[in-house]
User: Which sequence fits this backbone?
């Protein structure tokens, strides 16, 4: 009874010897798994003289072993096994065809690696990995090792066919190497190596440094990281990859083929190892190509004109101004002068706003040079002509008078006086005439005053003026 219970105790311990009908107990035999792969198990045990060996598989198949010997150590490799499987073997020591002793032991093959690991979620400081469970079986556990860090046993999620694990406290825009081990029966798989990059940081801000009608020049501070590139997404349209500059801290990029006066949405991504940052979204308006406030200004003398316009919004490189019949002129300001013109004339001017290599539709204006000089000149000229005419008359009259005095001293004065009054109203003469007429008027008044007394006073001497 005691012996039986002792035997049972012994039977419950593996490895152990099951004592069969042995005349003499053999030497203690221990089996070790010397090497292990997913399909192979190399077993070693200590040699017992004059014994042969039979291996019994858990499915009942018994195979006589052809062992290789290394001194007192015997070795046998079991092949065609399944990965990550626990096998129960019995090794029999056979002497003269009789199983003398049996050694029960278990051994596991190496588990398979995971087929692949994908990044399920990513941030600047964390990575969440996901993988399909080996053999869709939750008996396998996993160990994730980040290079240069200690192992992390990943938590298991029962029930699903995928496992996930999050690694945190990482740096942005950095590539990390990992090894994921499958664990079964205390044994690790060979390790699945993979690497993953954290999300790079966005650029801090984007400045629109130049705004043209058909293009926008952008600039931004480089993200301080190695192997960075950029992707600019233009609205929902195509994306442009922009290589980072070496040894430069400020990037510039020109977006071309835009339309004037249009708002555009952009998203700028920083890219590291194919991983995009969250993206910085901004919008900007291209320069408008409309000239406003176009007007003319007179310049003194009327021999020049100034064309003035309002500075258009946005970046414009210049203005092409063409006066009809002249070569086009260019200005980068808001004013252009034309010289060598004639006063009081109309000139047609056409203006085109240039923004980069785009020109606006032409805007025309008709400008008149200052006419005041011409009017004053005409008046002066007229006055001068009148003066000359009068001068001529005065001279003429003088010569006529002289001739009359010489030829006929008793000539009638009235005729020449009448001629004078009708032809000339020059101030000089007018004065003379007015004094004359006043004299005549006075004479007339005197006459009127003296008429009555003549009627009352018959003794007064009536003197009849010749011209009444
Ligand atoms: C050893 O294995 C054999 C065959 O599988 C089995 O019959 C026996 O009970 C085992 N012995 C022990 C002690 O586990
Ligand atoms: C083992 O076999 C050899 C011959 O093959 C023999 O000489 C030897 O005595 C045997 N040993 C034992 C312990 O039986
Ligand atoms: C038992 O398993 C071994 C190893 O896997 C194999 O070689 C053998 O054919 C199997 N026997 C049966 C009957 O399945
Ligand atoms: C994995 O196993 C679960 C049950 O454990 C099952 O629902 C699922 O369909 C299996 N998936 C695959 C891919 O075999
Ligand atoms: C990891 O260790 C290797 C060598 O031990 C070293 O060259 C490398 O710089 C380390 N990497 C990190 C991220 O610390
Ligand atoms: C996996 O990476 C380790 C170093 O981290 C290396 O020793 C090993 O050879 C790699 N395995 C494979 C299959 O490349
Ligand atoms: C962008 O504009 C801000 C404010 O005007 C300025 O401080 C910054 O240096 C500019 N950055 C670049 C890259 O031009
Ligand atoms: C940058 O990328 C190139 C090619 O992908 C690689 O050879 C190089 O080691 C990388 N440099 C850094 C600092 O990651
Ligand atoms: C640009 O973005 C604004 C909102 O940020 C949106 O209202 C507008 O429709 C967008 N424009 C285009 C052309 O996508
Ligand atoms: C306009 O052009 C003149 C000469 O070409 C140059 O000296 C001046 O700096 C320019 N002005 C602007 C605002 O570009």
Assistant:
């Amino acid at each position: 009874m005691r012996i039986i219970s002792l035997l049972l105790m012994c039977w419950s311990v593996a490895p152990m010897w099951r004592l069969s009908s042995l005349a003499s107990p053999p030497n203690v035999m221990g089996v070790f798994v010397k090497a292990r792969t997913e399909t192979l198990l190399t077993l070693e045990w200590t040699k017992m003289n004059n014994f042969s060996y039979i291996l019994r598989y858990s499915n009942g198949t018994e195979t006589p072993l052809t062992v290789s010997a290394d001194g007192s150590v015997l070795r046998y490799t079991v092949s065609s096994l399944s990965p990550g499987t626990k096998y129960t073997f019995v090794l029999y020591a056979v002497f003269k065809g009789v199983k003398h002793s049996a050694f029960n032991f278990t051994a596991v093959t190496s588990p398979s690696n995971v087929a692949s690991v994908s990044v399920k979620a990513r941030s600047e400081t964390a990575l969440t990995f996901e993988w399909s469970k080996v053999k869709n079986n939750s008996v396998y556990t996993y160990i994730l090792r980040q290079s240069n860090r200690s192992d992390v046993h990943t938590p298991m999620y029962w029930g699903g066919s995928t496992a996930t694990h999050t690694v945190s406290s990482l740096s942005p825009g950095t590539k990390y190497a990992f090894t994921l081990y499958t664990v079964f029966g205390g044994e690790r798989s060979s390790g699945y190596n993979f690497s993953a990059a954290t999300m790079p940081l966005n650029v801090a801000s984007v400045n629109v440094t130049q705004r043209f009608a058909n293009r926008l020049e952008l600039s931004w501070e480089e993200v301080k990281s190695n192997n960075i590139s950029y992707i600019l997404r233009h609205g929902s349209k195509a994306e442009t990859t922009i290589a980072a500059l070496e040894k430069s801290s400020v990037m510039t990029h020109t977006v071309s083929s835009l339309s004037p006066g249009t708002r555009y949405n952009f998203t700028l991504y920083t890219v590291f190892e194919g991983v995009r940052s969250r993206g910085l979204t901004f919008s900007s308006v291209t320069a408008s190509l409309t000239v406003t406030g176009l007007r003319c200004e007179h310049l003194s003398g009327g021999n020049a004109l100034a064309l003035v316009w309002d500075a258009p919004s946005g970046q414009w490189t210049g203005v092409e101004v063409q006066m009809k019949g002249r070569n086009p002129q260019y200005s980068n300001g808001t004013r252009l002068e034309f010289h060598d013109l004639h006063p009081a004339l109309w000139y047609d001017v056409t203006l085109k706003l240039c923004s980069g290599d785009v020109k606006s539709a032409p805007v025309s204006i008709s400008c008149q040079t200052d006419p005041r000089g011409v009017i004053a000149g005409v008046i002066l000229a007229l006055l001068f002509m009148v003066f000359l005419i009068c001068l001529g008359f005065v001279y003429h009259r003088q010569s006529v008078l002289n001739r009359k005095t010489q030829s006929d001293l008793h000539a009638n004065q009235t005729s020449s006086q009448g001629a004078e009054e009708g032809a000339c109203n020059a101030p000089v003469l007018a004065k003379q005439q007015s004094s004359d007429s006043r004299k005549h008027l006075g004479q007339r008044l005197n006459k009127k005053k003296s008429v009555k007394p003549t009627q009352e006073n018959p003794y007064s001497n009536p003197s009849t003026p010749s011209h009444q």
User: Anything to note?
Assistant: Residues 287 and 314 are 4 Å apart (CA to CA).
